[in-house]
Structures are given as C-alpha cells and as structure tokens.
Amino acid sequence: MLNYDCCLSPQEKRVAKGILASTGRERVYSILDSFHMSTPFIDIERARFFTESMKTTEGQPLVLRWAKALMNCAQKMTVYITPESLIAGRAGKLGRYGILYPEIDGDFYSTLRDLDKREKSPFKITSEEVEIVVSEIAPYWRGKTYHEHLNGAMPDDLRGVTYDDDLGLRSKFVVSETSSYRSALQWVHDYEKVLKRGFKDIQREAREHMAALDNESPTQNWEKRPFYEAMIMVCDAIMLWARRHADLARDLAAKEPNETRRTELLEIASRCERVPAEPARDFRDAIQSQWFVQMFSRIEQKASAIISNGRMDQYLFPYFDQDIKAGTLTTTQAKELLEMMWVEMAQFIDLYINPTGNEFNEGYAHWEAVTIGGQTPGGEDATNELTYLFLESKREFPLNYPDLAARIHSCSPERFLTEVALTIKDGSGFPKLINDEEIIPLYTAKGAPFGQALDYAVSGCTEARLPNIETYTSGCVYINFAAAMEMTIHNGRMLKYGEEIVGLETGDSSRFKTWEEFYAAYLKQHRNLLAKAFWQQYIVDCLRPQHFATPLASVLHDLCMEKGKDLQSQHIDGGLDFSYFEFLGYGTVVDSLAAIKKVVFDDGRLSMQDVVEAMKANFEGYEEVRELLRSAPRFGNNDPFADSIAKKLDYVCQEFAQKYSEERGVNIDVRYVPITSHVPFGKVVSATPNGRLAWTSLSDGSSASHGADHKGPTAVLLSNYHSKNRNMKNRASRLLNIKLSPKAVEGEAGTKKIVDMIRTWCDLRLWHLQFNIINKQTLLAAQKDPDSYRGLLVRIAGYSAYFCDLSRDLQNDIINRTEHEQM
C-alpha cells in the first residue's frame, strides 16, 4: 500500500488510509456502503410492463404507444425509497441496478445468462427473471427491434465494414454504428421549466395546443393530435409515479419506529404529492422535482450517457439563495441533499447488453454531467456560491457520480479557477473542463442565437447541448482511421480479417516510390471510410423515427411542443441538427504518416519494403526498424512536421463533412471522442508504421499516442491548436487527456501552474481538457492488489471510474499514458 517515497495526491492519501472521503457524512456513507463496489443486478420490470403495453397498441401512432407504455410503467412498476435517503425516485430495485430496453436490445437476450461472467461491467440476474425475459419479453420483440431493421437495411458492402457476422451481433470495428445500443444521443432537459411551472401547467399548454388544432384537417388529426394526446398522458404518468412514491413514504412512515425518520418520510410524502406536478417552492422541492424528471427519463429511453443534469448551479441557485437568506437551509444541509442525489444516481447503472456497446463504455461508464460556471445568457460570468458548493462537495465526497463539468471562459474569476485547480489536484479526475471560447462561436456560426449559445449545457462525454434548440438524437458513427492506414499498407486488407478486401485495393505499398503516391493511397482509404460512414448514418436517420419516441423529452422541449412533433422525428422546423462522426486513432494515424514521410521518403533510412515486412512480423526481429520509425516527429510535441499532417487530415474530414452537411441539412462535424472504444478498435488493427504493436490500443481522442508526448503538457496543447482548421466550422469536441504526477502540481505553486495551464488552454480555444493526477506506481500497485485499491478513481474519457472495475487492457492504456513530471 503506497509505501514508495513520493508525493501523493489527496486521493492517494485517502486510499493509503483506507477511507473514501472526509468525515461528517454518516447518512450518505451509510447509503453508499450498502451498494459500493457491488455487482449490479438487472431489474426487469421496466421491460416487462413496457412490452405488456406495446403488445396492446400495435397500429397506433408510435408516440402515443410510447406514452401509454410509460403510463403502464408508472402504474405498475414497484416503487422504492432507499433506506435513510431524503429523496425518492428509483427506476428499479434497491441497491445497484440496471434496467432493460427490449426495443433496443431484445435480440441480444440470449446473452443474459452470461452477463455475470463477462470481464467488462458484469451484471447479475436471477434464473427466474431470465426465464421471464426469454419467454415473455424477447419473443414479442423478435424481428421488431431497430437493430434487426438496420442490419437488414444495409447493403452488403456497407454491412461488410460495419458487422463481422450476418446477424450484426459483432462489430467489425471499422465503421461502427452506435445507434443500435441506445435510443438517443446524450441529452439535457429544460429542468428550469419543470421547477418554475410544474407538469400541471406544462400539461395545460399541451391541452391548449390540441384544442387549437383544425378538427377537419386530416394531417393534423393523424400527425399532431396523437402527439398532444401523448404529451398530456406522459404528464399524467410522471405525476402519478410521484404520487405513488408519496403513498409509499406515508406507508413507511406508519411503520417507522424512529420518530426522526418518521418525520423525514412524512416530509418526503408531502413533497412527492406536490412536485413535479406543481412549481418548486424551495431548494428541497427543487431537488426532488429535478430527480423525478431525471429518473423517469431513464424509464422512457436509453439515452446515450444518460440524461444529463444541465446547469444545476444556475437553475437551482434561486431556491438555494432564497432558503439561505431565509435561514431555512444551511450550506451543510444543501450539500447533504445534493450528495443524496449523487448516491442515488450511483445506484443506477447504464446497462449495455449489446457487446459492442459494452466495449465502448467500459467500467460502468456514466455521463450524467452537472455543468457549473460559464456565462449567463446576458454574457456575464455565471459563477455563484452554489458553483463553489459543487466543487467543495466533489473534493470532500469524491464519488464518481455525478460527472462534474466546469465551463471556462476568458473572464472566469480567479477564485473559480483556483477552486477548479484544487479539485483537479484531488486526483479523482474532476472536473472536466469545457471551453466557452471555442463552443459559443461554433454554435453561433452554425445558426444558434447568441444568447442561447451562451446558455449551453455540457452533456455526455465532452459534448454540449442547447435544450430547446437542438433536435438531433441519432447515435452516430465511429470510424477507425487506423484501419485505413493498415489497408493502405496491405492493399485494402487487414491482417485480422485475412484475405477479405475490407477497403479499397490501392496497390502494393512496398512499391510506392514517392510520399505523394503513398499519401494519395491513404486518402483514398480515408475518404472511402468517410463515404461508408455517411451512407450508414443516413440510413440510421431514416429508420430510427420508425422505432423510437420520447414523449417526456418532447413535452419539455419548446420546439416539439410548438410544432407538434416528437423529438425523435427526423427533423423539426426551427431546430438545429448537430450530427458527428468519430475520428478513431488520430495520433496513431498522424504519427504513422509522419514516420513514413520522414524516415522512408524524406531521409531514405528505410524502404517501404522494410516497413511492410517489419509490420507483418509485428516488429519481432525488426527492433531497429521500429526504433527508427518511433524516432520520427510525433503529434503532441508542438512539432510542425507532425502537426501539419494532423491539420491536413482534419481538413479532409471537415471538407467532406461540409459538402454533405449542405446536402442533408444537418451539421455533420468531425469529433475526437473515443470514450473507451480506442481499446477494442485497436484490437482489430495490426502493427502500424508509428511503431505501435499489433492489437494494442489506438491513441485516444486528440491526445498524443502513448509515450509520444515528451515535451510537456503545453506542447500537447499547442499541437492541438496548430492542428485545428480554425477557418472551418464542421468540427466538434476534441477530447484531451493529460496525465500529471502529483509532484508536478505540489503546493500553492502547483495550484497556480494548473490555473495558468487552464488560462492557456482557454486562450488557445481548445474544446476540452481533463486530467489524471496520479502516480504510475499507484496504478501498478492497484493492478497487483486490487482489493486494497477498490476506491481508486481514474479519469477515462469524459468520465471517471474505479480503476479496479476496468479491464486489464484499459488499465494498461491509462498506465501507459505519458505522466508529465514537470509543467
């Protein structure tokens, strides 16, 4: 246990002492101890009652069927209140749990019996529940799931780069669709609307819209009337669900021997009878109302990364400020209420039955982002006392829930940046940083009103959302451009797939005589994968509205309410659609191209034949060749040679995206956010010209390849800056991981270094930045003795997870990231 002589982060010190966090949170700890690090269970009730309703409504408009299914769930799902909790609302049984979405993963239920045996993110389910799922639920969805429709709709040449089997159960990890293991992208609701108005008033608005319809219009009767009927019904459903919790709280109070707890349960009952039906009156009401919306959203749909929490320090602040001034709330009580939400949040696990989805989201991934800081719609700094309370809570109670995101702008106060830096120094990976100076101009360039662009919320891994403006929900495509590199080397083939022609036959690479010839061949492979990806995504967009509806998300969206269209519709007039495609292996590809150009064609130190033979042998017996390739300029060192190649690749992607954005009427943006997919994508790619060994991880996001960045973290920032095409707008998030040793940020001087680095990053207008501040020795020790390090948190890709929950491959990926010892 951490017996080496080095500087430790606060988190490492806590691990050394065997404690999770600071004292003074006995109730929250008690709840946490009841489930912490346990293997989650599957609760099948949502799937059972959702399916029960869908069986009876075939032929009706989908949005109305969905609302009826949600009403059935609201009426029949068992309601629970966590012992000792001060808030109510769960989507499943007590403890750590996940729920099923058969409309998405019903054709994967043959794997349920093995979920407790899988290495990555295992789940438990009883044999009785498996039998119910297999005999009652799965048969109805056979042939009806979106995944089956998508697989059947793809032409053979497109399916050939997407799936590795006829049924589409295994990804090829070349051009991977992500839409079949989630019903929507990450999303943010307009929680402030619920807190200020309540669902009774929102329902009144829906009734008024329905009353205003032309009763003689066939289109309005068929298209809009069912929508508003669904809106009215889903409001009734969530209000009923809340009242059932009120009844439960009152029943529990009647049996409760402890007077203090009995009083708490009666207060919970009183609040659940009032919110979210009515406006919130105080901070406690606001917390309970927001939590009901968040949890019922999880029953409604499997949104990628879960429904995020939006700008909590903004919409909760009026209630916090009012109660603090009135003396009815203390900051300690406010933190306890927030932390009650965090431990409730930590019990819901985003379950992936689809094995590809599980590969993409390892370590029980979660992104229920809480956004703090940033600017107001009027352009003023938005930080307030609640902002600092969130940071204080995260340092004192560093649970990996929620995912905390700090918006930074050029005028962010010094106090805010210092508090952010102190929280980062804790070492648990919070908060991730999102840059107003990059995101707001991009939003306005793509058509968002400036005031609303200023009010964006962080959502999911590193994304941003405008809750009442954005309308695009389709899961998007991941492209393995390292596979394009391998296809260039091996004439359209990949060693993983033998003689199958996966890409284009661009010729025998060992005979290429010039850099221009090699680069032209690579670009053909690159553009071929882009074309396949855009084709795939268009099919996705066309099919999804036939399978998914979201009446709750729609009733909370201004445009959906106004236009009478479900959020899952392909397009809503007046909305902004932001799609993306993922660049997998950016650093890997850039470094590979730089190595070929420099070592082979510029300096002539190797021939292409030498490189091809060495790669086929996975560099065994070719160690000198590998070292020559690794000595070439590499991305992440502020080296113009490598960075110029990176910028050209980004330009190729954006140029392609711009052309087809105009054709489709959707902003299609290049993104560099792998989550954990750079690990499984690397497992299908053999050795690459940058010296990377076969089947190992690709570079992640816009970070440097493992061990390639040797000139310090500022050079990593500058490489990102110099590789951006700032005159183009078809770009989105670049996920940037930086790993620092605790020694590098020790003391007040270290805090200032982080603040200075944040200022630099902000000035460079880079989208995202996150830190791991941990000693490599600690990670190695955790691998050897996981039982002693169960509480050790690390930053993955837009979320933090327990290191010991990760697969060996992902653990090694984090260990092998460059640990900068100086700033």
Folded structure, characterized:
With 823 residues, the chain is an alpha/beta fold. Helices cover 49% and strands 9% of the residues. α3 (45-56) packs parallel to α6 (127-141). The chain is globular, with a radius of gyration of 26 Å.
Helical fraction: 40-55%
Assembly form of the protein: single chain
Strand tally? 19
Please give the radius of gyration in angstroms: 26 Å
Low-confidence stretches: none
Query: Rough shape?
Result: globular
Continuous helix count: 33
Strand order of the largest sheet: 6-7-8-16-15-19
The largest sheet is: 6 strands, mixed
Alpha-beta classification: alpha/beta
The percentage of residues in β strands lies in 5-15%
> Separation of termini?
28 Å
Output mean pLDDT: 95
Describe the structure in brief.
By secondary structure, the protein is α/β, with parallel strands linked by helices.
Question: What's the arrangement of secondary structure elements?
Answer:
Elements: H1 10-17, H2 26-33, E1 41-43, H3 45-56, H4 62-76, E2 97-99, H5 102-105, H6 127-141, H7 146-153, H8 156-162, E3 175-177, E4 187-188, H9 191-211, H10 218-255, H11 259-274, H12 283-300, E5 307-308, H13 312-315, H14 317-326, H15 331-345, H16 355-360, E6 370-373, H17 385-396, E7 404-408, H18 414-425, E8 432-435, H19 436-445, H20 450-453, E9 457-459, E10 463-465, E11 477-480, H21 481-489, H22 515-543, H23 551-555, H24 558-563, E12 578-584, H25 586-602, H26 608-616, H27 623-630, H28 640-664, E13 667-672, H29 678-682, H30 713-722, E14 731-734, E15 737-740, H31 747-763, E16 768-773, H32 776-784, E17 793-795, E18 800-802, H33 808-815, E19 819-820
Parallel strand pairs: 1-2, 4-5, 6-7, 7-8, 11-12, 12-13, 13-14, 15-16, 15-19
Antiparallel strand pairs: 3-11, 8-16, 9-10, 17-18
Helix pairs in contact: 3-4, 3-6, 4-10, 9-10, 10-11, 12-15, 17-18, 18-31, 21-22, 25-28
